[in-house]
Specification:
CATH class of the largest domain: Alpha Beta
Strand order of the largest sheet: 8-7-6-5-9-10
Number of strands: 23
Largest sheet: 6 strands, mixed
Shape: globular
CATH architecture of the largest domain: Alpha-Beta Complex
Structural class: alpha/beta
CATH superfamily of the largest domain: Creatinase/methionine aminopeptidase superfamily
CATH topology of the largest domain: Creatine Amidinohydrolase
Strand content: 15-25%
Distance between the termini: 55 Å
Radius of gyration: 27 Å
Length: 477
């Protein structure tokens, strides 16, 4: 067991506490802060060692020196908090507890810190969604619907909790959730949606609301066998009917508030890539690049990544949905980066393909060029009224002309919104047409085992006369 020593680390410029911007960082000096820490540590039987440095390497050395000698570390790294990976790596290797603090008043330091990325954006038009769903029930052969897909519940009501079912009938809608959301649910749901906070015994709630229904729809894509058995027992007089795509069909065409959120998420991803692009270099690992992208998106206000970020280099890039590994990038490698951000539940999706150290000839450059031409062929077909399959055909025919038809092993695109993959689908077997307000990806790829792969992907808004790109990061040569 290490000795009873608490190592306190203070980063760059913390020796200026009390002098530099006291309205932001306070009037107490570093010695004042240290005295408080020493008193608290003494009460726990700990001695305090303090290291303040303006140099990253000295702080790393201090952490290394604490291993096996100190019981715990309290770190206020100042500006190094945001980018000093070497210090964070050293802290991760320390065997004892590590607590990191950052003392400031963000609202005073950055006036925009109190703003969010959705400030100023139009609100999604939630109020009209349940009435639109009600018009679809007769055609589905049901007089009520139990919505079990939480994404659909959110779309219809605005409720963002992790548990709940929505009971929809001609009389309106009832959200059934649990006590964790007693305060949240009533404050989030759109007007006209009732909320029931139910305990373990929920049967009376369902019987009271749906007992008069003769045909109750269940979402076939999300309702489980357990859900079906439960509702069969509760609604003994009703037939349970599988339904498909009722809510999803409403979600296809985005309103202005939804488009604004997807576009804000795309802008965050664009900026993150701009920051990280120089780090896609020989010597960096796939995992490091992916982590940097995720961190950069979070720092710009993303509430999450849209999906597990893909960074795949060299032969790994021939796997369309590879996961980042510890493989180190080498000069000449093809590198596929597929990632996106989430803003207020809405997602973006973008793929850029790089070559480490730039163009140097060979099959890798030919592959990047061919797929880029194919993507443009697909984008040129995107407009209101165009059959979905035609966009796929345009990309596929272009790659076939380049001798890469068999290397294109997935569909051309998909809808994007509250889910990363949603209707419509752009593939050879797709039916239907593009409509204004669809938000879709166009993402042809070609993958050659042993060499690598390339994918170019953009998220676009379908308009009457074409499309508008929502992802705008440059496609590097």
């Amino acid at each position: 067991m290490a000795n009873g020593i608490l190592l306190v680390l203070s980063g760059p410029n913390l020796n200026l506490l009390g002098e530099r911007q006291p309205e932001v960082y306070g009037h107490d000096t570093l010695d004042d802060h240290l005295a408080v820490v020493e008193a608290a540590a003494a009460a726990q039987g700990l001695d305090v060692e303090h290291v303040q440095s303006n140099h990253e390497g000295e702080l790393v050395d201090a952490v290394h020196g604490a291993r096996g000698r100190c019981s715990a570390i309290l770190a206020n790294l100042g500006a190094l908090t945001h980018y000093a990976w070497s210090v964070h790596d050293a802290l991760a290797a320390f065997e004892g507890p590590v607590v990191e603090v950052h003392l400031s008043n963000p609202a005073a330091r950055e006036p925009d810190a109190a703003r969010t990325v959705i400030d100023g954006l139009p609100s999604p038009e939630v109020a009209g969604r349940l009435p639109a769903l009600a018009t679809l029930l007769d055609g589905a052969g049901v007089d009520a619907l139990v919505v079990t897909n939480l994404v659909n519940v959110r779309y219809l009501t605005g409720f963002t909790g992790s548990a709940g079912e929505l009971l929809v009938d001609a009389g309106g809608a009832l959200l059934v959730t649990d006590g964790r959301y007693r305060e949240q649910a009533p404050g989030q749901v759109t007007a006209g949606v009732e909320v029931a906070i139910a305990g373990p015994e929920r049967r009376p709630t369902y019987v009271e609301r749906l007992g008069g229904a003769t045909r109750v729809g269940l979402e076939a894509g999300s309702a489980t066998w357990a859900d079906q058995r439960r509702l069969t027992g509760w609604l003994e007089e009703a037939d349970l009917v599988p339904t498909e795509g009722l809510v999803e069909s409403l979600r296809e065409v985005k309103d202005a508030g939804e488009v604004a959120r997807i576009e804000a998420a795309a802008a965050i991803a664009d900026a993150a890539l701009e920051e990280v692009a120089d780090g896609i270099r020989a010597g960096a690992s796939e995992r490091e690049v992916a982590a940097a992208l995720d961190h950069a998106m979070r720092c710009r206000g993303a509430e999450d990544r849209a999906f597990a970020t893909i960074v795949a280099g060299g032969p790994n890039s021939a796997l369309p949905h590879a996961r980042p590994s510890d493989r180190v990038l080498a000069s000449g490698d093809l590198v596929v980066c597929d990632f996106g951000a989430v803003v207020d539940g809405y997602r973006s999706d973008m793929t850029r393909s790089f070559r480490v150290d730039g163009r140097s000839g060979g099959r890798e450059d030919e592959l990047r060029d061919a797929v880029r031409v194919a993507q443009q062929a697909g984008l040129d077909r995107v407009a209101d009224g165009v059959p979905l399959a035609e966009v796929d055909a345009a990309c596929r025919e272009s790659l076939e002309a380049s001798g890469l038809g068999e290397a294109f092993v997935h569909g051309t695109g998909h809808g994007v919104g509250l889910d990363i993959h949603e209707a419509p689908t752009l593939s050879g077997s797709a039916t239907g047409t593009l409509r204004s307000g669809h938000v879709v990806t166009v993402e042809p790829g070609a993958y050659l085992a042993g060499l690598g792969g390339v994918r170019w992907e953009d998220t676009v808004l379908v308009t009457a006369d074409g499309h508008r790109a929502l992802t705008r990061a440059p496609k590097a040569d």
